[in-house]
């Protein structure tokens, strides 16, 4: 393992410190927690707070999205490990200005349970809390009898939409309805060229040969659905768009937002090339996305790979929400 | 009816902490092919916090002891196992001082786990160890074989809850890491001699 | 070589296409060139144009800095290869609105010569052109008899300062004076954990063992000044800050801006940890930077490593320039 | 006095293009330890463009031919070698139709290279090949040995211009890639038989 760190046991603590000290204009840390909240307190007055979070290792998610117009707080757990309820609760308390708090949770057993417990704690304090569980990763088969799908990069769109609506005064119930309506329109799928190395583990989550890729991996090195020889960018795009099309029939008469997301070690050069092929592929279907974003938005530490999110803009207002100005480190 | 005392419970927790420390890497390895490779570090972080919270402390009753354990687990473990083990001890704390019958305590703990995580028996989670073990305790017949069989039974299951569920059929052939750590919990309980 | 590309010969062309099609609100491409210019033409009216550029492989540099308040145009050459004069000239012509054009050039023989030739061409057209050659990399010994130092990540600060001044109406001569004054205050130095792989070459520019790092590398895998065993982040910070301090005595009574720059494959987790150690190191010297930026701003394709830029804010107005709002993809 | 004709010049350029194509990888390898590993691809891209610009074309004189060559190099190579080789041919184009004496032509080219890049002899750049070669052409005594010696002389020099200069003393022991490609240029010139 070759990383710029000190003690693997302290990576989260030191990282959060570096982040808030580097960007005091946007974020601050609730002492002794992994809760990162907005510095601009005035921007939260009278608004519903939006709190997200999850395990660390997905930087700039989630603290990078804290700021006016987007999240009110983000709670960071240990690497790839859900944060604990007391820390989530600390964030909820800190950002509640009387209008309640909305939680954005990714669909992992750990996140769901810890956020639920934090919600219970907040309700004991009479803070109204609602939440959405994001499950955009279509690589996983969905079913009523299972955990269901993972929450991955599409969560960033959820943050953006809810943050814009909250900043414009949406109530907790309105945010809840909005989140429910948005959720089924966000679909994500990834391809990995190499797995992430968790500092405390010291070796990659899985091994891929020099010429191998894996489709459908998660953001914690969860295995995907198929391993094969490295393909040209065009072919990767065809596979990923095809899978999304199977789920969410892509048609020329609809509006879409896309997120091409680098996993951490994949340079922008490759992400832009992938985007070029993506826009060609969509173009062949008569689709020109109304909104595009390319970069490292929901990473998996130093994994190499790309995820593709396609978000059907079923309501034209959602595009305004995506374009709504924010003051954050990373959107 | 098997009674639990504060002293026996502390012994139990010490034994559990020792087992987790000894098998930290093994638990994380089990969590690698079908999870995210952190179950050992999660549990070890939690049990270190538990020991810091209870070591050398005098607890008036099981309620205080289990509450301290629950809070340490809930606030230090994170992930899926933190809320699950934390809830288990929280539910036992709720009964603690009125009812020290192990069968009742563990029954309440299991109900809490099932409510928190929504897993049923057969979903390849620690519920698959807790369920037969609690049955056996209530029947006065818990043995190491019951524990081992329960742990091993998870190997051939298809995961329907937790990270392993993302793998579907491919989760078959692997022990469930949370079941293995729960196995250590009950092995430590037997080792206190409470059933002897 | 494991990359998400199609034909290595087409990476620049496809990447630029992906970029401008993904971000039409910010940038457009002059057909058949590597020249990327602002879409917001109104924002350039009556202002001096700022044109930068260089070889590709440093994404988001330089097109990521094109937009209102920053660059007017950025010219991309082949990977690690200076763009040609005709393309630079095309950008100059496209962004000139009558007030002239200022060129930001990094100190490489190729860049200097190609930008010089473009300047000659523009002058034949009576477009007034001035330029600055950025040479912030202190890893290289400076001398009158040599090429001098390389231009690296500190160039991004130069873009920001000049872009803000130009947007506020500075004349070509004022920009020239400003650039000359800013230049000696920007110092950068890097450490690499692995080298970049140029797609057409197919293997890394140099090999480092699994436990080796190299101090002082350039952004084209130019070798550095020392190779040693991997050190903790703290020690890397001490080495890099020490080198900058040797050049530009760091003192508590001065104001500084810092840029912690990832080289492409180094995740933000490590960059934030490095920042934590950096702010401690500077803190011990009584210094609290007035401005901090952390991320992949001037990369070297998929190199792993970090560069540190310290910019002495000799004029308090420079801080305002750094904080001046921009509309770009990547600042 | 050695006269250059359009036909000989085209032969010269064909020979140069062939040599660059044959040694593309070698030139990039030379550029790796002391540069950025692209000199071969840069020159190959340039000479492919030169051939596309001149192949099958009828040029009225050296001026038109060299101008086409210069424009192809300047607009396709980039890097350091593009402006340098481009300037060389541009300067020859300027003289082209009035003066076809090879010594004069190459003298003008070298002056252009030196002005553009600011390198002096001894700086470990292609100037170290051009300088003795142009001397020899003017003296009517260019041989392959002159070319080879000039190329090899760059090996022990400390680079003071171009990317290799960042290495200082550590640039010693490596041939300068631009000098090697210039060696091919003059080897191709000799091969036309113009000096025979
Ligand atoms: N919904 C659930 N109900 C019961 N147990 C669960 C559930 N989800 C996960 N588990 C248990 O948690 C274990 C994983 O714990 P751990 O690795 O610490 O957390 P995480 O999965 O968040 O990384 C699994 O092996 C399984 O036994
Ligand atoms: N200032 C200069 N004057 C003369 N020749 C130079 C100068 N700088 C570089 N060169 C020549 O250019 C060659 C490198 O060319 P190339 O690799 O194509 O460009 P780059 O260095 O931009 O990658 C060097 O080997 C050297 O001979
Ligand atoms: Mg985990
Ligand atoms: Mg786990
Ligand atoms: Mg080059
Ligand atoms: Mg080169």
UniProtKB/TrEMBL annotation, chains A, C:
GO terms for biological process: glycerol catabolic process. Keywords: Kinase, Transferase. The keyword Nucleotide-binding does not apply. GO terms for cellular component: cytosol. It comes from the Bacteria. InterPro entries: DhaK_1, DhaK_dom, Dihydroxyacetone_Kinase. The keyword Membrane does not apply. PROSITE patterns: DHAK (PS51481). This is Dihydroxyacetone kinase subunit DhaK.
